[in-house]
Amino acid sequence: MRFLGIGHSSDLGDLYLRLQKQQHEVRVYSRDLAEHGTLTGLLTYVDSWEQQLSWIREAGSDGIILFETAEHGLAQDQLRREGFQVIGGSELGDRLENERAYGQSALASVGLRTVPTHAFDDFERAVDFVQSHPRRYVFKLDGSETSSWRNYVGRAPDGSDVVALLRVQRARLAEIGIHKPSFILMEHVTGVETGVGAYFNGREFLEPACLDWEHKRFFPDDLGELTGEMGTLLTYRNSQRLFAATLAKLAPLLRESGYVGYINLNTLVNDEGIWPLELTCRFGYPGYAILSVLQTEGWAPLFQRMLRRDGLSFETRSGYAVGVALTVPPFPYRYGYAEISRGLPVAFDPSLSASERDRLHFVELALDQSGQLVASGTQGCLMIATGHGASVLAARKSAYDLAERVYAPNIRYRTDVGAKFLSHEEAILTRLGYLEPHSS
Predict the structure, then answer these.
(1) Tens digits of per-residue pLDDT, 253-277?
(2) Which domains are delineated in the chain?
(3) Which end of the chain has fewer surrounding CB within 10 Å, N or C?
């Protein structure tokens, strides 16, 4: 088969490598390749994805285009109208993810109970609002070009910390050319943060759906800055009730837009119900790599099933998977990365078996001229170490035993992925009826 990947920085790079390993032809367009060199020496890059469309069309039903971002929805819809097979999202998907207030209204329109959310394009109006309605708020910027670490979960009960942040953000965003920002203030809700994700084939969801518990902050115990992702615990089991109550309700909207791809809904679950927080209308990073640990068929058969619509289920392993992001300084920031870590060598314990190496999913790596694996990219997330087991404890041990056998200067990672689930989150979800007793 032929695959054309389209994105900014090869976020699906590990997926492309595995397709290549299975003897599929893969070409990749990465907007940031010339400057940052992610996975150079490992993948075949092209200067223009549009110039590769004839190469895909020549493959007929064996030609597939993969979009990585939630920014190319219009292009995806047009390519589908022209007869191309496209997996990624749609124009609607872009809006659902990037326009947060719109996403909340769409969730409410299908019957979900949403957290009160207030949209703004002016910081002073937002300051006046918080001062008039004091309480805890979560500040989230719209769009895909703003980093997640600019978001902020307020802690002061009167919102005074959010007011201070808004005033500083106004000046900082102006410095980078954002003078009319679009953002929301979401009223703060507590509960067990749980993601529900599934593949959509343009008409229906494939099952099973997955449940995931992400770890977004840099340090253990959820301290420090928000990152793209430091690690995730996930499973394909026990997902039906949460899926039916949340993500499944979006099927009519997705069908109308022609959406084809993976979609995830992040929620908070508490005694009052399920509160949807935000949608990710594309492959999640590094979630897709951790999912692959539990998917027995490989990526190509799964994509074929989605496009040909010849089945609504796929084979998955029981139990849990854990993924841990292995990083180097200054992750999650970009500033100073070229001077501190880019180009430093990455090596492995010589005793690693082939199957163990297969559980390492490359992110920001490349081969230098001598054939040495080195840090590349823009931030310093080197790879994801994954593990699988019948229990959370077994999956954690598998992942962390592997992480300890990756060698790089100043490597660091969270050591508590899945621990909070074991300590209390599983018990809460079980009590509320969303998990079976003793599932871990």
Answers:
(1) 999 999 999 999 999 999 999 999 9
(2) 2-96 (3.40.50.20), 116-187 (3.30.1490), 192-431 (3.30.470.20)
(3) N
